[in-house]
Amino acid sequence: MDRETKLWLVVLFFLFSATYCVVGVPQVPCLFIFGDSLSDSGNNNNLNTEAKANFMPYGVDFPAGPTGRFTNGRTSVDIITQLLGFDHFIPPYANTNGTDIALGVNYASGAAGIRNETGTHMGEDISFGLQVQHHRDIVSQLTTKLGTDKVQQHLNKCLYYVNIGNNDYLNNYFLPEHYPSNSNYTTEQYAIALAIEYSTYVKDLYELGARKFSLIGLNLIGCIPYEISTHGKNDSMCVQEESQAAQLFNEELKALVDRYNKELVGAKFIYVNSAFMKYSNFKLPDSLKCCKDKENGLCFPNEESCIGRHLHPFFDAFHPTEKVNLFTARCAYSSPIPTYTYPMDISQLVKL
Ligand SMILES: *[C@@H]1O[C@H](CO)[C@@H](O)[C@H](O)[C@H]1NC(C)=O
Ligand SMILES: *[C@@H]1O[C@H](CO)[C@@H](O)[C@H](O)[C@H]1NC(C)=O
Ligand SMILES: *[C@@H]1O[C@H](CO)[C@@H](O)[C@H](O)[C@H]1NC(C)=O
Ligand SMILES: *[C@@H]1O[C@H](CO)[C@@H](O)[C@H](O)[C@H]1NC(C)=O
C-alpha cells in the first residue's frame, strides 16, 4: 500500500471510530427506498439478469448471509435505516406480502437507472419509472387497509430516499456499444434530459403523498475500478470525463432541490453530495477491490473474498465495501461538513 492509500484509510478509521447506538422508536414511521445496486436488498434475485448478488462472497459479513445486497455487509441505506432507529431493515418489494409494508418498502434494483433502457444489456431490471409504479401499488394496498385520510397522514411523515442515476452513465452513456445516448446527447444535454425525467418521477411520489425527500447525488464514477480498467487511459488514474459528466447531473439535481422546495407545497428536499469521497489518491486499481471479479465486474460466485475487507474501499469492481458504506451513511445522516448535504442533513430533515 502506498502512502496516499494509507493516509486515506487513516482518515476513514478516524471518522468511523465513534460508536453509535440506536434505541427506541424510529424517527420516521416509514422509509421508502428507490435506487440501484447501491441500495438493492434482493429485488433482482428472481429477475432474468446478470446483475445479481445473492451468492457468496456477497453478504459474507451480513448476518443473514447473501441476500442480493451488492456488498460484503450492509448497504449505505441499511445503515441509515439503523441510524433512524428502525430495528429491522426495510423489506425488498419482491419479498413483501402485504403485512409488512407499513414501515416502508425497498424498490431498488441492480443495474437500473432513471432511463428505462439503462442496464438492460445485462438483462431485466426495475427502472425508476417502474419502481414508482410499484410504489403506487403499495400505496393502494395501504389505502385499502387504512383508508385514504390515514394513509396520507402516514405517508406524509415518511422519508423517501432516492439514490439513482449512476447506471445512466456506467450502464448507458459510457457504453456506446450497447446504447445510442452517447451519440444522441452531449453530456450537458444528457444531464438535463435525465434531470427532467427524474423530476417527473419525484413529482409522482409527491402526488402519492411523499413530503420528505433525500436525493443522493452521483459518485465520482470515473474512479470506480471497473471504469479505470476498461476506460482509463492511464492505469492508475480516474477517468475524469466520466466523473465530470456525472457532476453535471449533480448540479441539475441540486437545482431541482431548490426548485421543488419552492414549488411543491409542504415538501422538503435535501441533496447529498456523494462525490465528496475522493478515490483519486489510489494508485493501483487492483488493490482497491476485494473479491475476484468476472469480466462484468461482479464477484465470481462462491470464490473466497479477501481477508482484510475493511482495508479495501471496493468489494467487487463496482461496489463499495460496508466500511465505506458506513462512512457515506453517517455523513448523509449527520453531515460532518456543511457542503456534504444541502440545505441540511437527514437527521435534521426527519425532525421537521
Ligand atoms: C409476511 O411477512 C412477514 C415478515 O416478512 C411474516 O412474518 C409473515 O408471516 C408473512 N405473512 C404471510 C401471510 O406470508
Ligand atoms: C418508462 O417506463 C415507465 C414504466 O413502465 C413508463 O411509464 C414510461 O412511459 C417509460 N418511459 C419512456 C420514456 O419510455
Ligand atoms: C437516438 O438516435 C437514433 C438515431 O439518430 C434514433 O433512432 C433514436 O430514436 C434516438 N434515441 C433516443 C433515445 O433519443
Ligand atoms: C500515468 O500517470 C502517472 C502518474 O501521474 C505518470 O507518472 C505516468 O507517466 C503516466 N503513464 C502514462 C502512460 O501516461
TrEMBL record:
In Gene Ontology terms, what is one molecular function of this protein?
Answer: hydrolase activity, acting on ester bonds
Q: Which residues form the signal peptide?
A: 1-24
Q: Which InterPro entries match?
A: GDSL, GDSL_esterase/lipase, SGNH_hydro_sf, SGNH_plant_lipase-like
CC per GO annotation: extracellular region
CDD domains per the UniProt record, alphabetical? SGNH_plant_lipase_like (cd01837)
Where in the cell?
Secreted
Q: Does the keyword Signal apply?
A: yes
Question: Can the keyword Lipid metabolism be found in this entry's annotation?
Answer: yes
Protein origin, superkingdom: Eukaryota
What Pfam family is a match for this entry?
Lipase_GDSL
Q: Which family does it belong to?
A: Belongs to the 'GDSL' lipolytic enzyme family.
What protein name is recorded for this chain? GDSL esterase/lipase At4g18970-like
Species per Swiss-Prot/TrEMBL record? Cicer arietinum (Chickpea)
The gene name reads: LOC101512094
